[in-house]
Amino acid sequence: MLDDLRGTSLENPPSVVAAAARAVDLRAEFFGGAQVDRDRPVRVTILLCPGTYRVVDLNRVLAGSNQTERLRVRGHHDACDASGRRSDAAHDDRPQDTVRQGAATSPTPEVRLVPTPDGPRFASPGVLPASGPVRFVNATAQGGEMLLQRLRPGVTAERVRQVLEDGRAAGSVFDGPAYGLGGLSAGHQETLGNRSAPGRYVLMSDAPDIKRGVSQATLGAWRIVHLR
Q: Contact 133/43 with Cβ under 8 angstroms?
């Protein structure tokens, strides 16, 4: 599986990437995780049913490492069936600090990665909370991500399209690295505890497409959102 993960590097030819991505989807189930850098912590809520898992640092794997960390999960959760499988429709993974309005808890905003004939696309509110939980649902039949990257002032949607879809140099488009949720298998959902500066951001998935072997963002899996 780690060899297949290395094959998904977008530096490889698209045919190699597509085949490796399909193999990864067959051999492993991914429950998300945080994409971070040393200057930005990210809080992620993940529900794991009892069993044995492997914690993978994708950057190290792509660099050639076979090191993983073994994780044993014990206990019980109502969202786990008798076989230890998880029913995402049954669980609520909102963090403890869900925003409250008066006595009622406000619904957690939901971002969905959905399939289209042209590849995955994001269905999302145009405004998301800069501080608070955001739920990501991968409604496609392949792995996906929910990454956020802040835009510099004045950057247009056309300029973002040129960078993400045409492969032009990013230049002064982005104000900092991408962060968020990565490595979520088809049909799963997780919650990001967002703590970001308000502003305009690109919401995108850089995961490889299993048919075309290129970044899903290259195929149009991105949109501009406002964090407030």
A: no
Distance CA 67, CA 57 (A): 8
Distances (CA, A) of 150 to 65, 130, 138, 178, 201: 31, 11, 22, 8, 4
Backbone angles phi, psi at 210, to 5 degrees: -75, -15
CA dihedral 160, 166, 171, 176 (to 10 degrees): 50
Q: What's this model's pTM, rounded to 2 decimal places?
A: 0.87
Which residues share a beta bridge with 190? 136
Q: pLDDT per residue over 123-173, tens digit each?
A: 999 999 999 999 999 999 999 999 999 999 999 999 999 999 999 998 899
194: which 2 tokens? Answer: 């967002």
Q: Tens digit of pLDDT for each residue in 166-217?
A: 999 988 999 999 999 988 999 999 999 988 999 999 999 999 999 999 999 9
In angstroms, the CA 166 to CA 162 distance is 5
What is the distance between the alpha carbons of residues 53 and 18, in angstroms, rounded to a whole number? 25
Q: Render the burial of 71-87: b for 16+ CB within 10 Å, e for the rest.
A: eeeeeeeebbeeeeebe
- Dmax of the chain from CA atoms? 54
Please name the residue that has the structure tokens 């957690």: 108
Neighbours of 202 (CB within 10 A): 22
Nearest to 127, CA basis, from 107, 100, 109? 109
